[in-house]
Design goal:
The structure is a homodimer. By secondary structure, chain A is mostly helical. Chain A has 21 helices and 10 strands. Chain A is 48% helix and 7% strand. Chains A, B: One of its GO terms (molecular function) is voltage-gated chloride channel activity.
Chain lengths: 582, 582
């Protein structure tokens, strides 16, 4: 659902899909980076809201996990989205409860209701919860670790082509089904409780007491867990007064199976989520712990299951506030909040000691260039000069069309410094930064000059602001598509009007950490590096997101492995660093 | 509570109070701006947690309202704080419920519990809620407007001295008490309901049915509202099955009185909060609306009261997510969430059409230089040159002690550009930025040179990083305290090692909006403005927070009243702006 929401938002952000004729005029206003980012964030928030019926949790999750950086406007937009979703959702539930939409009608606003007016726990219940949190954190980090490894393997297989993809998916699914059908045979039959509201045993699709191979009047607890939808299984595990329903061995089996299966079923082509599987696994884990502790605690096993899911979620997702709220909105048990916060606190802390959160790992394994918000310590020891890589492509204020075409064809850069040289200025001066997309637009319009003379802002007359609007993914024009005659190649373009004359710049001696903060906080694409003493060269280089990537930096300075960066520590005395970093 | 928490945090941030000997060595680590900011934020979060027993709400409120800008680290820290507070709180409640702490023992984790398992509302209940939201928004903005005016008046009076302050406080309190005692006479006596758990009428301190002047068997509903603590009043208003307890006239009187009193009792020297009064007022307002609508809606008056508080809070505080969560944690009614979100959405939107949120207004009226996150439209039309004000004080790389002292004494600037001139460099070069505090430290240490020769980083040898640590408020040394002999005045200091050699700079032609984004996002104190063409002057000016203030800008360009900034719109063609703002 999260993914779906984000996708829809992304499509909207690109002004609808031309291919399918789904495009509107008013969507044009979204044709810029920021709005597109916000849209995607809001989309995922809406997705969570719809999936878990947790509007506030949706906002927070989107802000804590999705958004690269927070702005109050973004908060307001996300809130607006989720509020609308929540209200519509509530209205639909209202309609469905009147039985107007068949199977969909089930479930209210709260999915796994564990409300208990008189839940009581005391200080002596805290130690088990602490243990739960610690183990949950460790399990969560193991989960991330394994998922990461499996994903790399799957990516390797999937790259081999669509055929292998399908084979892989089939294998996993067959394996899964065999496991799910085979394992229940391990569990022994249990006699039905006398005081149960539901029919026992049940053979049908739903129901807590599955008959499976058992004689009448008995049920197979493991089967009852496996042969249910995830939601029913979670409801079942969270439920209060079923302490005797499951055998602790079958609970353990269920936990291990879920743990393994949820890892293996993620990376395949068939859509599989992260959230719900982790909740199920965590619930099983928590309930198992609850069974072991048994009567030594006031908390019943259902609450242990809730805390278990919290622990595992905290251990793998590593978000705090949003998880709190989501769990709160899922279970509607406010009295449990202090314990949930405690568990999340511990599990996150423990897990952070081992590896990063699951989304970062997935992004890394997929190779997205995601820029961390915080600067690595060794970055304080480097100057931007250390990471700038040449050769630097520079355009003159009035440039020959041929050169532009040649540079665009030979390099992949997206931004180029524009420099004025004599006779335009008495000394070389950095005029600004021009984007590849804009250059291509200029070439397409063929607004060329026969002689290298500057033209003023009336150069805009031939362009509409839409020409310079951000193109959708893949919709951008390629330089190869532009055909120019040799005569045109000899003509000139006055780049001045179309150049961003006030780009953000840093001096070459600035520490990398400081530059990263600027780059990250302001959300730049290009950062120009100017020399300390502006001599004959007005610009030293240009930094892009790629240049701030730890991998890139470590490649440039092999001596600088993360472990050994300390060797550099004394390149600047401590006080000097303190002052540099001001 | 919020204020208290923030204060404690601030004291910690300044490394304890030397005056009262409350200082620790480890608190030294907090002696920098960022940590101090974070501490205050966490402190206020803790305050809200303790006040409303709403840990998650506390985090969100702190982030949404207090924090100037968000970082995931800050979120984590705030979460940690509130989690700890929540757990301790829960433990104390646990202790108190065993009756070990006398009067404190009252109340559980949820303050105003309005849980209702089978609350049902349908589409036909939405219109009244919409009306509630709209009117609530209008009331909220009126509240802010009046509070602002009253505060200005009070500030004017309070400035006259302590005597006037006390007089003012006394007047308000006398006025309040008269009002509270006098008004109940307006209400007619009502006969006690037969089916009530509590004694009716009551004469004691607590209880819902106050006797006041009524004959036995009767109670005065207005008195029952007035002669209660705010908490009891809120509980009373939120309660479900008391639809017939109050007369709508006395509810109206109560609402108006609370509205007026809460405004007048805020600015006086006696401590008075904003949150609870607004909740009471809103509850009264909501309940009144509920009474008018009466049986036309499925929602009972208690829920209307909750929604009313939400509406008024949204209308005056203008926060969304945090309010949602706080109300959720106060009332523990998750099923009401969609309606609460809807109300907040509407009331905030309506109120934003009139004026800013209450905290901004208060900050303005107190004259704090708070920098808005978003740039005003007219800022796109101005360049940084338009707001830079001279005269600019520049230091040379190796400066005469006398000059430094003279400049520090004659100007109030906190940062000075350091420029190298021949013979140190062949042309004037901007070396960096040095802070007033650091200069004073240098002067105090008297590490002077007889001759103007540069010394290397070994200049640090005489300093510890503690000398350059951020001083507490008011603990900083004054330049006046430093006594120097005439001989010393003639000596030199090599500023190079102590200068921040890589300050953030912008070119003079950059649009003000763009510079503001840099200034705000990176959280700068000083921003150096360098010329486009670095000629004989390497630095044009220095921007501080003050220079970005709309008041300052409007003073500089009188033609540029907020209404008339549109006149400037075409200073740059639209496309040109689009490219400049990249």
């Amino acid at each position: 659902m999260v993914h779906t929401g984000a996708c829809i938002a992304a499509i909207m952000g690109e002004g609808g899909s031309k291919k399918y004729g789904l495009t509107w005029k008013w969507l044009q206003v979204f044709k810029n980076d920021q709005d597109r980012r916000d849209l995607v964030t809001c989309g995922s928030a809406a997705g969570i809201t719809a999936a878990f019926r947790a509007p506030v949790g949706g906002v927070l999750f989107a802000l804590e996990e999705m958004a690269s950086w927070w702005r109050s406007t973004l908060l307001w937009r996300a809130y607006f989205t989720t509020a609308v979703v929540a209200i519509i959702l509530r209205a639909l539930i209202d309609v469905c409860l009147r039985g107007k939409c068949g199977l969909f009608g089930k479930g209210g606003l709260i999915m796994y209701d564990v409300t208990s007016a008189n839940i009581s726990y005391h200080l002596r219940d805290v130690p088990p919860v602490l243990v739960l949190g610690v183990i949950g954190g460790i399990l969560g980090s193991i989960y991330n670790f394994l998922l990461n490894k499996v994903l790399r393997l799957f990516n390797f297989i999937n790259e081999k082509g669509i055929f292998y993809k399908i084979i892989l998916a089939c294998c996993i699914s067959i394996f899964t089904s065999c496991l799910l059908f085979g394992l229940p045979w391990l569990a022994s039959c249990r006699s039905c409780p006398s005081d149960t509201s539901e029919p026992c045993p049940t053979i049908g699709r739903s129901g807590n007491y599955k008959k499976f191979q058992c004689p009448p009047g008995h049920y197979n607890d493991l089967a009852s867990l496996f042969f249910n939808t995830n939601d029913d299984a979670i409801k079942n595990l969270f439920s209060k007064d079923t302490d005797s329903e499951f055998h602790h061995l079958s609970m353990l089996i269920f936990f291990v199976t879920c743990f393994v299966l949820s890892i293996f079923s993620y990376g395949i082509v068939a859509p599989a989520g992260l959230f719900v599987p982790v909740i199920v696994t965590g619930a099983a884990y928590g309930r198992f712990v609850g069974m072991i502790i048994g009567s030594h605690s006031n908390l019943n096993q259902g609450l242990f299951a809730v805390l278990g899911s919290a622990a595992l979620l905290g251990g793998s997702m590593r978000t705090t506030v949003s998880l709190c709220v989501i769990i709160l909105e899922l279970t509607n048990n406010l009295l449990l909040l202090p314990l949930i916060m405690l568990v999340l606190l511990i599990s996150k802390t423990v897990a952070d000691a081992f590896n990063g959160n699951i989304y970062d790992l997935i992004m890394k394994s997929k190779g997205f260039p995601y820029l961390e918000t915080h600067a690595e310590p060794y970055m304080r020891q480097l100057t931007v000069c250390d990471v700038v890589t040449g050769p630097l492509q520079i355009f003159h204020g009035i440039e020959k069309v041929g050169n532009i075409v040649h540079v665009l064809k030979t390099t992949g850069h997206n931004g180029f410094p524009v420099v004025d040289e004599p006779p335009l200025s008495e000394s070389p001066v950095l005029f600004g930064l021009i984007l590849r997309a804009h250059l291509i637009t200029l070439l397409k319009k063929k607004a060329f000059l026969r002689t290298p003379v500057p033209i003023g802002p009336d150069a805009f007359l031939q362009f509409s602001s839409n020409d310079f609007a951000k193109k959708g993914l893949g919709n951008g024009d390629k330089i190869e598509d532009i055909k120019l005659s040799n005569e045109e190649m000899e003509m000139f373009i006055d780049l001045h009007p179309f150049t961003n004359a006030t780009p953000y710049t840093v001096v070459e001696t600035m520490s990398l950490a400081k530059a990263l903060i600027l780059f990250r906080e302001v959300g730049l694409r290009h950062l120009l590096v100017v020399p300390k003493v502006s001599g004959h060269i007005p610009v030293v280089g240009i930094l892009t997101r790629h240049d701030f990537m730890p991998e890139h930096i470590l490649n440039l300075n092999p001596s600088l492995t993360r472990g050994r960066w300390k060797r550099l520590r004394f390149r600047f005395p401590r006080l000097g660093r303190l002052i540099r970093e001001l």
